[in-house]
Write a sequence for this structure.
């Protein structure tokens, strides 16, 4: 079980309709690849975030499959076009079954 | 012009370049760093008095890094070092030890310690020694909080705490006192700085004073300033302490490093910190 896993997101509060906004996300996670050996010589079991999704008002914006080669504390930045006021919902899926979520509201003037 | 004169002219130019410590051909100077759009960082300035004649300008390690690495430090959301600062804040507010106190019981909030990182290491009258921020944290834990198992000098928890203390001091001018009772340690640090260590027989000065800006393998040597420590190193995916970096450097000379937290490294930290007097605190900085 990974410790100190905290999701964070940064989304502008306001946008104009049809504007492309920059969405930044970060989750603190060790992303243990499963290929490393500990001091006892045994493999350290894989423990990573294997999927990340972002939905806007129920519509999928981005759905990412994450592989073990991705570094500690995965950081994703992407652009999304917003046409209406709504909520971005972010979800991270951990190998151990944990699911981490965060949301961000954006107002379209 | 004769062939001889041409050669003579060329070698004279090379000597002049070496004497000036110039290796800044690949380095873009003159850029400024503002963190979160509000904290202004001095990344290059006139050297402190004791380095007059050695450097024309002192540069933060930030100047020597790529645009991408530089940019990571300009926003706390992009700076992975801030993840450790967050853990430091948690520890700051957590009671530890037999007295049932947390750091916050005495210091209220981390911001009250804003001038710590810029003035340490400093002389501690009560203990009759020069103390680093780490030693001060340990002193609080063992002498005032009754912590049975204080942080290890280079432990993750200690680095988190020091990163927190550095982060609230960002933008403060480094102003380490090197005179008075601290002068003995300062002199020792100076001697270590110019001593050649290891099979490679390298001193700090040979890389960081005579060759900053030049390539060491695929990387640019900096002036070895420590105003950005604890520093998030991309290669470690973690924050690194000043002494951890010293150990790494001496190890790279194929020498036997002093112990972390040893009087020698404390003296060296004082001396190296004083070489950055006039720069600003950046920790946790982002470096490769």
């Amino acid at each position: 079980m990974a410790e100190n896993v905290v999701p964070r997101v940064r989304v502008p509060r306001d946008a104009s309709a049809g504007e492309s906004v920059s969405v930044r996300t970060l989750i603190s996670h060790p992303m243990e690849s499963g290929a490393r050996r500990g001091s006892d010589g045994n493999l350290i079991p894989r423990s990573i975030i294997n999927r990340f999704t972002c939905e806007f008002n129920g519509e999928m914006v981005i759905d990412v499959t994450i592989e073990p080669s991705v570094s500690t504390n995965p950081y994703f930045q992407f652009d999304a076009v917003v046409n209406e006021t709504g909520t971005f919902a972010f979800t991270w899926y951990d190998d151990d079954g944990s699911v981490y979520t965060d949301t961000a509201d954006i107002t379209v003037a | 012009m004769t062939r001889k004169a041409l050669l003579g002219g060329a070698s004279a130019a090379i000597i002049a370049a070496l004497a000036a410590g110039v290796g800044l051909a690949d380095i873009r100077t003159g850029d400024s760093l503002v963190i979160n759009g509000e904290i202004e960082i001095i990344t290059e300035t006139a050297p402190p008095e004791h380095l007059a004649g050695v450097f024309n300008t002192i540069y933060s390690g930030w100047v020597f890094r790529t645009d991408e690495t530089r940019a990571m430090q300009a926003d706390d959301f992009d700076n992975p070092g801030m993840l450790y600062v967050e853990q430091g804040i948690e520890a700051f507010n957590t009671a530890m030890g037999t007295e049932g106190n947390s750091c916050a019981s005495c210091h209220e909030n981390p911001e009250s310690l804003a001038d710590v990182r810029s003035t340490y290491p400093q002389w501690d009258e009560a203990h009759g020694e020069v103390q680093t921020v780490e030693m001060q944290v340990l002193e609080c834990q063992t002498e005032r909080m009754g912590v049975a198992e204080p942080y290890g000098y280079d432990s993750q928890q200690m680095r988190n705490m020091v990163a927190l203390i550095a982060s609230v001091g960002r933008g403060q001018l480094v102003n380490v006192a090197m005179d008075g009772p601290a002068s003995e340690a300062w002199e020792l640090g100076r001697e270590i700085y110019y001593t050649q260590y290891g099979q490679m027989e390298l001193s700090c000065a040979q890389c960081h004073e005579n060759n900053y800006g030049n390539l060491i393998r695929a990387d640019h040597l900096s002036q070895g300033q420590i105003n950005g420590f604890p520093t998030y190193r991309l290669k470690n995916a973690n924050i690194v302490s000043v002494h951890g970096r010293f150990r790494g450097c001496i190890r790279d000379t194929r020498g036997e490093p002093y112990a972390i937290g040893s009087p020698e490294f404390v003296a060296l930290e004082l001396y190296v910190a004083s070489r950055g007097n006039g720069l600003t605190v950046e920790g946790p900085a982002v470096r490769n």
